[in-house]
UniProtKB/TrEMBL annotation:
Keyword terms, alphabetized: Hydrolase
Residues annotated as domain Metallo-beta-lactamase: 13-257
Domain Beta-Casp: 262-387
InterPro entries in alphabetical order: Beta_Casp, MBL, Metallo-B-lactamas, RibonucZ/Hydroxyglut_hydro, RMMBL
Name assigned to this protein: Beta-lactamase domain protein
Matching Pfam families: Beta-Casp, Lactamase_B, RMMBL
SUPFAM superfamilies found in the cross-reference section: Metallo-hydrolase/oxidoreductase
Phylogenetic classification of the source organism: Bacteria, Pseudomonadati, Bacteroidota, Cytophagia, Cytophagales
GO terms for MF: hydrolase activity; RNA endonuclease activity
Amino acid sequence: MKLTFWGATQQVTGSMFLLESDDYRILIDCGSDFDLDEIGKKTRYEQQKSVFPFEPSLINTVLLTHAHIDHSGNIPNLYKEGFEGRVVCTEPTMALTSLLLKDAANLHQKRLNSRINSKKRSGKKKREVPMDYYVEKHVIEALDNFVPVAFGQRYRIADNVTVTYYAAGHLLGAAHIVLEVYENGEKKRLCFSGDIGRKNYPLLIDPQEVPQVDYLICESTYGNRLHEDQRGPVETLADVIKRTCIDIPGRLIIPSFSVGRTQALLYTLNQLYLDRSFPFIKVFSDSPLAHSSTKVYQKHARMLNKEAREFKEDNDMLFDFENLIYLESSDASRAVSNYNEPCIIISSSGMVQGGRVEAHVEANIGNPYATILMIGYASEGTLGWRLLNGQDTISIRGKQHPVLANVEKIDVFSGHGDQNDLINFVKMQDPEKLKGIFLVHGEQQSMAEFQSKIQEIGYHSVETPLRGTTYEL
């Protein structure tokens, strides 16, 4: 049996791992690589003569841990290049992946239009379509081959391979995947962690324990960090709103990912206004994708944690409350700038890189009565990262702006488990029985520090694979 690491190797994005047993080939995740710029993508794809470093038509099955684009974003390209198998995932993952891939297709179209317009302005006539470009038609064709499975049930996907999905927290439907592979009369177990959630997260059930395995492929996003906020989401958010919208008549801009993070925010705001009788400050949710994702969460409420299910039973709606306004159109989004009362604006993207939130940040960056609240990870170079680094002036859409707005950060809504959560996940495995750990989905420093931590507690065979490295298991 061979395992090759084709993505999320010493970086966070692009999860993609190829497991080969006899003539059966399984791809675990098929994510977009956001660490590569356009030139880097073009160079890699031309060298490979494909979006992929392997022949897609030879893949038998894809196992998807969860819906986020850095895990699912290249699935339509896999079918475009000849894959004919099925994608196995949980039912909520299938629903959320549908939304995210269709949104990605729209972004692909905008990206292509931008290229075409750029070439027209430069006088060049050749229309160059990026190799990883896909449209909604390709997404729909891919989705026709998705097969939903339940948590905790063993499924046979080949004569010698079974798979079981365990809830990972992190996102609705997210899973740890345990594979049992039978070779030469011997059974080998592998666990792919996906993204590991945290306990007591709004809406989501806690990550489930996984059984003993022989090999553990473990994410390490927060391998060198601990969550800073010690209070719960309701208390933390209440404090921010009081200081930014009540004590002073200000506005609070919250960049938030549309899938997962926004739902946790809206649910917490609903709890806050019901339990604490806060002034009814207007809340604008400015992301059509978030609105669609919220409906998926509402539909699959039976799969949420006990607190959320009881809240829904008592109050009927998890996310809708009296002072919440969903903004669908671009015109409605722009019109919020004319609203002069204290308000909260939740908009994507969470890293303030593209999306409607850029316009909200640009409109309020010079307002000393505005606060920009970062609630999650922002990768280096993004506008969110630059805001967090305390720059006096900042460039938005090519124009320099003085930073007069307040910039704050909380991590209580981060969907990733921190270093302690990751260590606890690893400690489910007996170090005497575990043959190897492979660390993925983390920046190099985070990965190196986490490797050192788990080696200190007795796990000695710990690898940090490079892209393209193959291991015989």
